[in-house]
Specification:
The structure is a homodimer. Chain A is mainly alpha-helical. Chain A is built from 6 helices and 3 strands; from the N terminus they run H-H-E-H-H-E-E-H-H. In chain A, strands 1-3-2 form a 3-stranded antiparallel sheet. Chain A binds a DNA duplex through helix 1, helix 2 and helix 4.
Amino acid sequence: MKRNDYHLDDSLGYKLFQASRLMNSRLNRNFKDNDFNLSYEQWQVLSRLFDEDGQTQNQLAIRNERDQAGISRLIDNLIKRNLVRRVPQKDDRRVNLIYLTEETKAVQHELEALATMTINQASMNIDPKELEITLRILDQIRKNLE
Amino acid sequence: MKRNDYHLDDSLGYKLFQASRLMNSRLNRNFKDNDFNLSYEQWQVLSRLFDEDGQTQNQLAIRNERDQAGISRLIDNLIKRNLVRRVPQKDDRRVNLIYLTEETKAVQHELEALATMTINQASMNIDPKELEITLRILDQIRKNLE
DNA sequence: GGAAAATACTTGTTGATACAAGTATTTTTT
DNA sequence: AAAAAATACTTGTATCAACAAGTATTTTCC
């Protein structure tokens, strides 16, 4: 009589899934409470552009580890909200360059502060050394699965 | 001249997001390679039913920390694939009880083995003590954000 | 120079999430 | 017993994900 030894609640996958989902929804809530209605995915794209404005969709896809189709539609939505512009490249008309709007540049620091705040909220009551270990292990998990 | 000190790649949220996404897609691939085409979310539901067959949709929603609308549609999809049955409760006609089909019961151990394998793949080259710490920190993050 | 391959992006489909609103049924209240 | 509240579930809408297929443009190769 062998007992089933798999328990969803105790599994690495489930814990990662829930922690990730909660972080995203908390970030979204923090944005919303400050009148920025931004999804986590949109934030990822903006954040890349804060690092370097005027990237191609392909670069954004690679850096955010997503497929181009997803980026394409994410950018459609960011454009609808006037958060970025899509500018065809002169010398290679296959390529679009994505630029932040002035409106978005103006709120960069506010958005980053909200992202940092979210991480602080998630990290409460956690020993900094153990948090360090966790970040390292998350990197290793990523390496293992890539 | 204060430099921007937020970096997406180094953030807890991003690392959690990527690790979680990779685990889910690896699980999905492992299922697919063995001719089970199951999403992670569907697996979550089945896994709850393996623990206890015949739960209400509400119970499944609470246990998987999802809203009822999501569970409702997940179950629609599981029914399409003949993986579960939806049975209205006699004495309270608001309630549906969800049961595994025989087909699904027959593959429980195989599915659980694939889930365990996925976790093992993700945990390669990780010190068990550090993995323990990570699991505990993930729980704490969840507590912090709930 | 022209065919073939590669590159960048878009569109379609299916499944999932979050939120809001709706229906049906049961329980509580008066 | 009827009205109001609560409960369980479904449906609608918008956004995102993963995969496949399609279009346009540029590069490579003969």
